[in-house]
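Please discuss these two lines.
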Amino acid sequence: MYTNPISRYLHALKARIQFIPPQSHVKLGRRRIYIMPSRYGIWFTSTLLVMLFGAINYNNSLGYLLTFLLTSLGLVSILYTYRNLAGLSVEVGKAQAVFVGEMADFKLLIDNQGQAARYALNWQLAPAPNFWKATETSAQSSVVEVEENKTILVSIKVLAQERGYFPLGLVTVFTRYPLGLFHAWAILNLDMKALVYPAPLGQSLLPASSLQEVMGESTLQSGSGEDFLGYRAYQLGDSPRHIAWKVEARDQGTFIKQFGGTGSPMLWLDWKQVSHLASTETALSQLALWVVLADKQGACYGLRLPDVEIPPSHGDQHRVRCLQALALFGKNP
């Protein structure tokens, strides 16, 4: 199939960039910056050629003057477009952990120390922007300006579709400053990853059986104590005062509120409780939801997986540790 020289050049450029190992710090120099005429630049050049032929045909001195003046303006704009990227330093920042289905927010540090101000810098994931189109800034683009001797943060948001470590991959920065006649860009392969937890989905009631296994029936009573432990199915003879009427109103069944003593309740979230579900991802999503609910309720909970066991505890660090174990379950290290 026939491809034009520009398409072949862009494909070759993409292949070359993919062989560059991921880096945590990159400085844009002449070997990394590429520049070509934009669509408006091609129109501008075509117009200059028509003006030149007209000036030659009519031997018009003013026509020569205007043509050469505009040509000089276009040539100078090449230098300014290139200088708008040259010398910038890019360093990877932090990426907060998210759940599947959320937007992973990657932070990049852009350093412009000792350089002139930079304008209209577009950052996006596309490895080779189609600069023949009229508009190129997509929903994933961030347009920033960097003042002289300043360092700023650029945010690139990507939809997290799979649990585990999600790499940022190739990032493109491009500019058309100042006149839009030329398109200068650089492609960066940044060593940056975000941890993606399983989506917290499934049954929103904590497994009461695991509470009873740890604490015993005598310490797990409906309506006694101050710490809310969760719900259990209604049994004949239970007091109506302990029925979860809000759950009942949502037609989710009849359940009894369970409370423990003044101490922190202990809860085991076990893989055996979810192994019967349709798929591994469904089971992990259910465990992730239970971890979130147990943390919100202040329970002292532990996590048992086929390859790891996390003893009962509580707090933010414990929640992160459990969710991380779920995110990396079955993944290669």
About this structure: Confidence is low (pLDDT under 50) at residues 128-139, 212-225.
